[in-house]
Design brief:
5-stranded mixed sheet; 484 residues; 10 strands; Helix Hairpins; elongated; alpha/beta; Methyltransferase, Cobalt-precorrin-4 Transmethylase, Domain 2; Cobalt-precorrin-4 Transmethylase, domain 1
């Protein structure tokens, strides 16, 4: 028999009657830590042993909890009965208990849980929040090890075990990937104890607090009702519901195609203009299209958002074995490209929809310049390429000569098409893997210079057609010298 007792968050007054009776009846009680406010007020006759020294001998918390669990299991098998007491409630934020329960069940040992008041209730009392109002409870140590917090920002959260300034420092870096640096948060110290206090400060300041200790918890208020991915999903689902918007309800995957293309190009426009705030808005519009398509799929029973996210997560993990797998880390971009393509090829080999050509998979609906570059690059990877850049330069001259020598309009148009494709290859050899963006930049430059020509003509009070080509060209060169 292993009895696990919750000591409550701090004051001896929080200890339950059942817990007190169990402690009085025990010969020996094992404490996860003696650094708990109520330990000094336990029954005077109680013989207790703590595992505090395990924290000094093990490097990782995972090893600490494993060692505690193994010692308790050996004691139970030796003595027949063990009493183990932990801060708060045994089933709230107690990793050693979770490990112990799992191993005890594997060995068919009987377990008894004596619940206690957790750290949650006094924390909520101090910050004035109702737990049923979407409260999220997380382990600060786990969150601090991640790069993005697994938190819905539209709901409040409690992060326990912010027991040192180092933990707070790592934690804030993770949280600042989602919350503003200046976001007001609260550090709750010694919740449940007479010395309890709440410290209000900005997120970036939490590791500067001198009050941080083993009983410190971080309270994150809700960032805002409309700040989460889930909030947006709910809005889109509402729009598609019977009581929603008639236009949204009528949309299909096919009817939304033009909007998806339009929003994609508007995102590209903001990238070209280097306008971050406009980019934020246009990316939102593009995300809207993705969510609409996903909600249509949900309504039609095709797939869920969780399916989309799971497949994407799995793909990103699978295609980065040098980060998440057993492939040695590398900064060699050429090697990284090979790794990506090898994993991608393995995925296709195991797919029932495997294409017959290396060129399959390039979207035919994409811009023609984009498709030409992708075809060229894929053929080159298979060895279908010139041995050096001189070969592609010679091919360009050959295609140009054929275009100039063409005798009919149809022949000339075809030869010019070949010339365009060779130009894409030449750009690839020059390291330009996005000729679409290159041409967009050229188009933007032409727009600026031609706009200057129009402006100069307007100042003369005459239409463009009234000026000679030399006059127009002079304004064009003027725009060029001005860097337009």
């Amino acid at each position: 028999m292993i009895t696990i007792i919750g000591l409550g968050p701090g004051s001896i007054g929080h200890l339950t009657g059942q817990a007190w009776d169990k402690l009085q009846a025990a010969d020996t009680v094992y404490l996860r830590t003696a650094r708990h406010p109520c330990v000094g007020q336990l029954p005077a006759s109680l013989n207790w042993l703590s595992f505090d020294e395990v924290y000094q001998t093990c490097q990782r918390f995972e090893d600490v909890y494993a060692e505690i669990a193994e010692r308790l299991l050996r004691a139970a098998e030796r003595d027949g009965q063990v009493v183990y007491a932990v801060p708060g409630d045994p089933l709230v934020g107690e990793a050693s208990v979770a490990r112990l329960i799992k191993r005890a069940r594997e060995r068919a040992l009987e377990l008894e849980i004596v619940h206690g008041l957790s750290f949650i209730e006094p924390c909520l009392s101090l910050v004035g929040h109702d737990a049923l109002d979407g409260l999220q409870i997380l382990d600060a140590l786990s969150v601090a090890e991640q790069y993005h917090p697994p938190i819905n920002p539209a709901l409040p959260a409690l992060l326990a075990q912010v027991y040192s300034r180092d933990v707070a420092s790592n934690l804030k870096l993770t949280l600042m990937n989602q919350y503003p640096d200046e976001f007001r948060v609260s550090l709750v110290h010694a919740a449940g104890d007479a010395e309890a206090s709440v410290e209000s400060l900005r997120l970036f300041e939490i590791d500067r607090s001198s009050k941080i200790g083993i009983t410190t918890t971080l309270y994150l208020p809700a960032l805002g009702a409309l700040s989460s991915f889930e909030s947006l999903q709910n809005i889109i689902a509402h729009l598609r519901a019977p009581e929603g918007c008639p236009w949204d309800r009528e949309q299909t995957h096919q009817s939304l195609r033009p909007f998806l293309i339009e929003e994609t190009y508007e995102v590209l426009d903001t990238l070209d203009a280097d306008k971050p705030q406009a980019l934020c808005q246009e990316l939102g519009d593009l995300l809207l299209q993705i969510l609409l398509h996903t909600q249509i799929a949900i309504d039609e029973g095709e797939f869920y958002m969780s399916d989309l996210l799971r497949q994407l997560n799995e793909k990103m993990l699978r295609r980065h074995p040098h980060v998440f797998g057993d492939v040695a880390p590398t900064s060699d971009l050429a090697q990284l490209s090979r790794i990506w393509n090898e994993v991608k090829a393995a995925e296709k080999a195991g797919s029932p929809q495997q294409g017959e050509s290396l060129l399959d998979g390039v979207s035919q609906a994409a811009p023609a310049l984009f498709v030409a570059q992708r075809y060229s690059a894929r053929a080159a990877k298979a060895g279908f390429d010139w041995p050096d850049i001189a070969g592609v330069e010679a091919k360009f001259k050959e295609e140009l000569a054929e275009a100039l020598a063409a005798e009919t309009r149809e022949e000339r148009v075809n030869e010019l098409g070949d010339l365009l494709f060779v130009t894409v290859n030449w750009l690839r050899w020059l390291g330009i893997d996005d000729p679409e963006s290159l041409l967009r930049g050229i188009n933007a430059k032409f727009y600026r210079r031609f706009k200057h020509v129009e402006t100069q003509a307007a100042k003369q009070g005459k239409p463009l057609g009234d000026f000679s080509l030399d006059e127009l060209d002079r304004w064009w060169r003027e725009a060029k010298r001005a860097g337009l």
